[in-house]
Amino acid sequence: xxxxxxxxxxxGRDLDDPSGFYRAYQRRLHAGFCFVYDDPxxxxxxxxxxxxxxxxxxxxxxxxxxxxxGDADWRIRAAAAGNGGLSTSMLxxxxxDKVAAVRRAxxxxxxxxxxxxxxxxxxxxxxxRGQVAMHLATPPAVLLTLVHHAxxxxxxxxxxxxxxxxxxxxLASLILLALVPFRDGWLVARRPDLAQEAAERxxxxxxxxxxxxxxxxxxxxxxxLHRLASDSSPLVRIAxxxxxxxWQETLSA
Length: 253
Hints:
mainly alpha; disordered N terminus; two-stranded parallel sheet; single chain; about 250 residues
């Protein structure tokens, strides 16, 4: 909102010309400033949504982004945390922010170090843990810990779907997701890189839907499909019949 210290006000459109902005506002960055937005006299170009988008996407010096990351408004801090140009040295501070949305944004930073993600994996807020589960740099052991946390609480967290498809998910976490009757086990069964051990466990102990989705997996071998063709569930047998990799003798059977 507008501030009485007009010489310290920064409008969202001021960020459109980085080179001119840095020269004109260098003093304000150190003296303290306040963003002005959602003032009816300014129009849509200076709405909060537009300002946050600019902050998340703009290419700016580390010093400038670091100052924005300390803004009093948590929404602006979160936007700065999501900017890939923000120095990773700022992330530990943002990871301890009192507002969960800021901590979640720190977990979404593209260069977030594994150690930071490991710490945020124990955050009390599900949204923060979910962002950790989606980050490509999250260590496999952390993904397994998140799965164990959900199983121990008997909770179906949305982030389990992200782990089921995560390229770094360890085999133990995939087997656990597939065998425990969670709604996201089918995502494991459809993975194109599904390990043979996981497929074997699903065929032996997986729920009906999980076995059916395994039978739909276009990368599953013909011999495994032949085995699934004698499954007790009609859903599984139908899925085998529709898989283009099934042997002719399997279809005849």
